[in-house]
Amino acid sequence: MAKAQAALDVGARARHSPAMLIYKIFRAPEWAELQTAGETLGAPVDRADGYVHISTATQVAETAAKHFADEADLVLLALDSIALEQDLKWEVSRGGAKFPHLYRALRMDDVLWHRPLPLGNDGHEFPKDMS
Which residues, including other chains, have CB under 8 Å from residue 20's CB and lie 6 or more apart? Predict the structure, then answer.
């Protein structure tokens, strides 16, 4: 049985690209809402656009600079792109780059980890171990 399961696992991995962490930035009240309610449709801009705006590791610093420039008390959430793939669409946005957009409520159990995103002298200070 173990060999059969291993074969299925290998086959499943062959059909999917490797997991990639993607990131959502929330203001403290938005993060508190997610923690309290267990899910959220996101920030006001997410609700207005009809999807939750998310960024890749290479996009998130520019997202912070553009949309949260002088804001402190931010929280960075890490999400697994593969776990969300059924409701995730990669759509052209800023500068012609494809950004991940989540077309359902973001759930607390979608969050792999969260960390404060402090505002330093030269912008937001991101964790060193982002990938």
Answer: 56, 57, 80, 81, 82, 131
Q: Is the pTM of this model over 0.70?
A: yes
Residue closest to 80 by CA, chosen among 12, 22, 39, 26: 22
Domains of the chain with bracketed CATH: 19-120 (3.20.170.20)
Distance CA 100, CA 81 (A): 8
3-state secondary structure of 87: helix
How many alpha carbons lie under 13 Å from residue 54 in its C-beta half-sphere?
29
Percent of the chain predicted with pLDDT > 70: 85
Helices H / strands E in the chain, number of each: 5, 11
Residue-level pLDDT at 129: 80
